[in-house]
Write a structure and sequence with these properties.
There is one protein chain. The protein is mainly β. It is 8% helix and 38% strand. The protein is elongated, with a radius of gyration of 25 Å.
Length: 390
């Protein structure tokens, strides 16, 4: 969506200028870029919208704002997007009429209010075009800044486990049947992660996220992990570097350069397709490596550790929205911020979907395939409630 936003801005010459210097009025937020985002958590959440005058007027200027859903289809067609129009009754403007008083530069704000939060579907980006019309002949609405496109979505509040560095989840594939996961020429592993401690060289130098590092002598399994070992990642070690590895960690996509902070959420995805391992971080392709053989998975499949390998490679942090796909997700899917928070449980190729929001030691597989994730290791899991995403 960032590309589309930039393209739209740069096709509207007036809105790309550093300042506006004509007798005109415009939506204030649309002066620099005509697209903005608004995530709502609760009914009553609102964002303010003002209009501005390019020059300080010597008379009062009035304008009207309206929600114009007729613009959604044209926007999608022009910019290759798939936003949905907002159904009636979900949002309203607190006022339609605004006034820039004589001698002032900006109006008082009106509010775009979410009235029905439950009707905002999870994982959907809605496009709400706000159109300005001037009521003054001497101060027309400025083309290119007379429409503000509000990308509206619902903030998802979720429960997440905080792993203590000794506990984790074991995925029990239904009936221990992994026949569908053999000789794959494409797959995706993905999850959201938030670390309370980074890996330390010679003291928990690897942290497993999803999957398992089977023996490097067999073509079995793949895994997402965080590395802090200097001979693999460079630097002095003790640096968090996310990787997608096969044959244990002898072949991997990963490198230095992605900044990570403690206590912040990141989305990591490992995609195998077209004989390449690709690592996406927050929706951006960050590293890749060639791998020409097909990949199989075994019953060793864990979330937050790799027990039985060296010191267990326990993850020290929270993991949420862990997923295993038997297809390669597209770059467009991974770029969508809402994809990190929610996907339809019947999505094509979605084999295992562990939200890890169960507040229990057994976490269900939301696909209905029955691949339950069961808590193992030592100590109780601490659960954090109502963590927002995105």
């Amino acid at each position: 969506m960032r590309t589309a936003i930039f393209a739209l801005c740069c096709t509207v010459v007036a809105s790309c200028n550093d300042s506006v210097s004509v007798d005109a009025i415009y939506i204030t937020a649309a002066e620099k870029t005509p697209v903005t985002s608004f995530s709502a958590k609760h009914a009553g959440d609102a964002m303010g919208i003002t209009i501005s005058s390019a020059l300080i007027p010597s008379e009062d200027i009035e304008g009207t704002l309206s929600i114009d859903n007729a613009l959604v289809e044209n926007y999608n067609s022009s910019h290759g997007e798939n936003f949905q129009a907002l159904p009636d009754g979900i949002c309203k403007l607190s006022e339609n009429h605004l006034k820039i008083q004589s001698g002032m530069h900006r109006s008082e704000p009106v509010k775009l209010i979410v009235e029905d939060i439950e009707s905002l579907k999870k994982g959907i980006n809605y496009l709400v075009p706000i159109r300005l019309q001037s009521q003054s002949k001497t101060y027309p609405a400025l083309p290119g800044s007379d429409v503000l496109y509000v990308v509206l979505n619902r903030t998802i509040l979720m429960n997440v486990p905080k792993l203590n560095g000794e506990n984790y989840f074991k995925v029990n594939f239904k009936d221990q049947d992994v026949s569908r996961f053999q000789n794959l020429d494409e797959f995706t592993l993905e999850a959201r992660i938030n670390m309370w401690q980074f890996p330390k060289y010679y003291d928990g130098n690897l942290m497993g996220i999803l999957g398992f590092p089977e023996s490097e002598t067999i073509e079995k399994s793949a895994w997402l992990f965080v590395d802090g070992t200097p001979d693999r990642v460079g630097g002095a070690g003790n640096v968090p570097v996310v990787m997608l590895g096969v044959k244990q960690w002898s072949v991997y996509a990963g490198k230095l350069g992605f900044p990570m902070n403690l206590g912040e959420w990141y989305h990591v995805a490992g995609v195998f397709s077209n004989n390449k391992l690709q690592l996406y971080l927050d929706g951006i392709l960050f590293a890749e490596a060639d791998y020409s053989k097909k990949i199989s998975f075994t019953n060793n499949f864990y979330i937050g550790a790799a027990p039985g390998v060296q010191n267990g490679f326990h993850f020290k942090g929270s993991i949420s929205e862990a997923r295993f796909w038997t297809r390669a997700l597209t770059p467009a899917e991974l770029r969508n911020p809402l994809h990190r928070c929610f996907v339809d449980v019947d999505s094509k190729g979605l084999e295992g979907y562990w939200k890890l929001d169960d507040m229990a030691d057994n976490c269900k597989d939301y696909t209905g395939h029955g691949h339950t994730a069961v808590k193992e290791g030592y100590g109780s899991i601490e659960w954090q409630q109502e963590v927002p995403c995105p």
